[in-house]
Design a protein that fits this description.
Pfam families: CbtB. With 71 residues, the chain is mainly alpha-helical. The chain contains three helices and no strands. It is elongated and about 80 Å long. The relative contact order is 0.10.
């Protein structure tokens, strides 16, 4: 006589996140990404927002990694 073990595995349920909870984080992330993109792409020379070059030096490797002209 053979014995079968039946194991019940619960099915995963989808987590529903309301859109009104996602929108503020999506806007925040987009603004932050655009700010980083602005600093990496245009923070140099005549269009520099910070005059001492601190931001440019901070994102300098990122500029070269993304092949933006630097010097
Ligand atoms: Zn450079």
């Amino acid at each position: 006589m053979s014995q079968t073990n039946v194991v019940s595995v619960p099915r995963p349920t989808a987590v529903r996140i309301p859109l009104r909870e996602i929108v503020p984080w999506a806007v925040f992330t987009t603004v932050l990404a655009l700010l980083v993109l602005l600093f990496v792409t245009t923070e140099a020379g005549a269009v520099s927002l910070v005059s001492d070059g601190l931001v440019h030096e901070f994102v300098h490797d990122g500029r070269h990694l993304l092949a933006f002209p630097c010097h």
